[in-house]
Amino acid sequence: MGYLELKGLRKSFGGLPALDGLDLDLSEGELVSLLGPSGCGKTTALRIVAGFETADTGHVVVAGKDITSVPANRRDMGMVFQAYSLFPNMTAAQNIEFGLRLRKAGSGERSKRVAELLELVGLGKFGGRFPHQMSGGQQQRVALARALAIQPRVLLLDEPLSALDAKVRVQLRDEIRRIQTELGMTTLFVTHDQEEALAVSDRVGVMSQGRLEQLDTPAVVYREPASAFVAQFVGVTNTVLGRSESGAVRLGTFKLATDAAADLSDGSDVKVIVRPEDIGIVEHEGEPNGALLGSVLTQSFLGPVTRLVIRLDGDEQTIRVDQPSNIAAAYPPGTAVALDFTASRFMVVKA
Amino acid sequence: MAVTAKPPRKIAGTVLRVVVLLVLGFYFILPLVAMGEFSTRGINNTRSLDSWTGIFEDPDLVDSILTSVELAVLSSVLMLVLLVPTMAWIRLRLPKLRRVVEFLCLLPLTIPAIVLVVGMAPLYAWVNYFLGDSPLTLTFVYAVLVLPFAYRAIDAGLASIDLKTLAEAARSLGASWGTVLWRIVVPNIRTALIGASLLSVALVLGEFTIASLLNFETLQVQVNLIGKRNAGLSIAVSLACLVFAFVLLFLLSYVGQRRRATVVED
Predict the structure, then answer these.
(1) Do residue B171 and residue A89 have CB atoms under 8 angstroms apart?
(2) Angstrom distance (rounded) from CA A60 to CA A44
(3) Does A98 touch chain B (CB under 8 A)?
(4) Given CA atoms A121, A126, A130, A131 in this order, what sign does their dihedral have?
(5) Which of A292, B53, B179, B263 has a CA 20 to 30 Å removed from the CA of A228?
(6) Distance from C-alpha of A297 to C-alpha of A292, rounded to nearest angstrom
(7) A102, B173: Cβ pair inside 8 Å?
(8) Minimal Cα–Cα distance from A117 to chain B, Å?
(9) Which of A13, A46, A54, A85 is best to mutate for the B interface (most B CBs within 10 A)?
(10) Where is the ABC transmembrane type-1 domain (chain B) (predicted)?
(11) Is the Cβ–Cβ distance between A299 and A275 less than 8 Å?
């Protein structure tokens, strides 16, 4: 039994389903991300946990207690919002102590707690500043401190980083993770940024059309996607169109032997999904030899790896291949190459 | 080219601005100066402050001034109490009703005062029966009368903050709806509230038709009455009233600023 449990949550807006039976369990101290494209229901799920929306059916349970019908202000949830949400008429310190004041904490306790929290989010000297005197990143740090001040049972993060610029985003996301681990705070993190989700989560739930497609550790979600949707949404993938043929998949002159094709009837269209780093490459000259052949179209240098875009012989499909940059240098545009992903991970699905 | 072309254009702009300012300033100031001049006329081309000192010697006038000021304050308060929670709630929870409420609030603007009175008179028979015939009962009409102006001002204030996010943030921290309204909404739209109150005060202090037709002795009714026997006094009161409104404007904006400054010191 989890610490935070979402049980069979359903919600529709004007007849359009936003959540279609969502079940999710978080253990105490765990950070789980809900990842998905916009409109997949992840924010709706979070808002139902926060108490800002009511589920049509289903329950939210925290520490064994059903809070489905508890109003938002009695749920003890700390929430950080996507939009800047600091109270403009209060300083950073006053924002942080707002929840403590409502809980009738004494002034000594309040100022001690505010100082601790400002220190925790790295803004020790900013207590006297108003929101408009702070940068976006600083405002979100204060918002985090404000949410943590009430010692919430669950921390809810609703895309708190998406309004920030790239560098601050990475910095703050690592800091959120550090603080969350330090405090052992059970956290539900909603994001559409897969890199963010993979980087900070204990588990990632990939959502699509109001349902969880997969819920697992970042490594498993990345390496062993449960569905074509997950494979395509998380990380960079190639989708190559082919045709099934006697228990294998034919891509041009190349036959990819795979068990996955066994259940498909001959001649049906299939998609082969494979990640750029899972494809081997060798230079190829002369006649076709049954391998997947193509020629390098472009190279883009990404630092440690270089991404080669390869046009497959015989059709217009292109495929992206990541190679260590020092090796990729040997394949300038125009080079004829043979690709190999027979040994690596790939996924075959019906087109 | 651009550099040489700019100064003449700039000069033309400045000249235009000065001309507009002079014309408008003249338009506004001239009547005030004329009122001041007229109200200080003495016998045989002398200057005298008799009309001005007369203001405080006329007990009916002093009474009516107090009545009008009380009415202005009460109407502003009633308007704020009615409008701020309603408008905030509609923005937060019932956005579909926004158009309806806006329409309702603008209605008093489209109904002539005389029509309002015809409708109100029977109602006021009851109000006076239950609450006595104090002129302060005019508060109810006036609070309705100022709705169109106050609505606009408060609506602009609410639109300038991210009300939904701020309210949700406060809710998640444990705030009741009352706390959200009092601690979050009101302080952040203070300027709009001051503007709405000021409009209400100005409107109530200047209102004549309804008070006169319902037979209440407010300031403007008195001024009209006095005007029939002592023009100098009525002009002095009117000018004082205008100046009072200006001072009020100044004071209210000053109060708004001072409050903010104290917060910085904390």
Answers:
(1) no
(2) 13
(3) yes
(4) negative
(5) A292
(6) 15
(7) yes
(8) 15
(9) A85
(10) 65-252
(11) no
3-class DSSP assignment, residue B139: helix
Could you read off the pLDDT of A277-332 as tens digits, one per residue?
A: 888 888 887 776 677 888 899 999 998 899 999 998 877 889 999 999 888 888 88
- Three-state DSSP class for residue B217: coil
A179 Cβ under 8 Å from any chain B Cβ: no
Phi, then psi, of A279 in degrees rounded to 5: -115, 130
Per-residue confidence in pLDDT tens, chain B, 266 aa = 444 555 777 888 889 999 999 999 899 889 889 998 888 888 777 888 888 888 888 888 888 888 898 999 999 999 999 999 999 999 998 989 999 999 999 988 888 888 888 888 888 888 888 888 788 888 888 999 999 999 999 999 999 999 999 999 999 999 999 999 999 999 999 888 988 888 888 888 888 888 888 888 888 888 888 888 888 888 888 888 888 877 877 776 666 554 444 433 32
- Rounded to a whole number, what is the distance in angstroms from the first to the last CA of chain B? 54
Alpha carbon distances (Å) from B61 to A307, B45, B140, B238: 89, 27, 23, 12
pTM of the model as a whole: 0.82
**Cα separation, A151 vs A154, whole angstroms:** 9
pLDDT at A81 over 90: yes
- Sheet with A238-245: strands ordered across: A254-257, A248-251, A238-245, A269-274, A347-350
CA distance B49 to B36: 10
**Contact assignment for A94 to B188 by CB distance below 8 Å:** no
Q: β-pairing, A336-340 with A292-301?
A: antiparallel
User: What one-character-per-residue DSSP string does A287-319 give?
Assistant: S--SSEEEEEEEEEE-SSEEEEEEEETTSS-EE
- Cβ contact, residue pair B172, A83, below 8 Å: no
Cβ A78 vs Cβ A145: under 8 Å: no
Residues from chain A that touch B158, judged by Cβ atoms under 8 A, are: none
ipTM of the shown complex: 0.85
Residues belonging to chain B: 266
Which one of A52, A91, A98 has the shortest CB-CB distance to B168? A52
Q: Looking at the complex, report in whole angstroms how far the Cα of residue B72 sits from the nearest Cα belonging to chain A.
A: 28
Q: Are the beta carbons of B174 and A103 separated by less than 8 Å? A: yes
Return the closest-CA partner of residue A199 out of A236, A174, A221: A174
Q: With contact defined as beta carbons under 8 Å apart, do B170 and A87 qualify? A: yes
Query: What digits encode the pLDDT tens for the residues A24-51?
Result: 999 999 999 999 998 889 999 999 999 9
A171 half-sphere exposure, CB direction, 13 A CA radius: 12
Placement of tokens 């279609």 in the chain: A20
Give pLDDT, residue B39. Answer: 87
- To the nearest whole angstrom, how far is the Cα of B94 from the nearest Cα of chain A? 14
For residue A74, the distance in angstroms to the closest alpha carbon of chain B comes to 6
**Cα separation of A68 and A29, whole Å?**
21
For residue A12, the model assigns a pLDDT of 92
